[in-house]
Specification:
Elements (H helix, E strand, L loop, with lengths): L25 E3 L1 H6 L4 H8 L2 H6 L8 E5 L6 E5 H8 L14 H11 L7 H8 L3 H8 L8 E3 L1
Antiparallel strand pairs: 1-4, 2-3
Helix pairs in contact: 6-7
Amino acid sequence: MTDTQPTPTPQVKRPGLHKPSVKTPFHIDFDWWKDNERDWHVFLRSLLCADHQAALASLEEGQMIDWVDELTAEVRQVDGIQHALMSHCARQPEFVTPQTALVEAVFRIFLVGGNQPMTAEDLAKRLGRPANTILSTLAGPRIYKGLRPV
């Protein structure tokens, strides 16, 4: 009589399907823009105030400059257009208003903050809109403007 035990079947680990929550941090995934053949610089230029659109018309695409984070004093290289947006244009009262479409407002908030990850709860506080509405928009099957979980 032989003792035969079945050979255990190896378990294959599948990547987990992480369902984002209101505490999941999001950011702008700039690789998404590249992968989807989106010209991010053209879009950024469209967000500049009229004065900066004229002043930066000759700035080369992708020209980098040093930017100092006001909160951390960290110096980072940022796109020149992004710097103008963060240091001036985004501080104008009309940059994000209650009438700004949700996805556009979220995108602009990330630009203003140097693309630092934020949760739907954080965004809700900044925008005065429900966190669950923000979450359902950002975590849905469609990716808007590269807004994705970190």
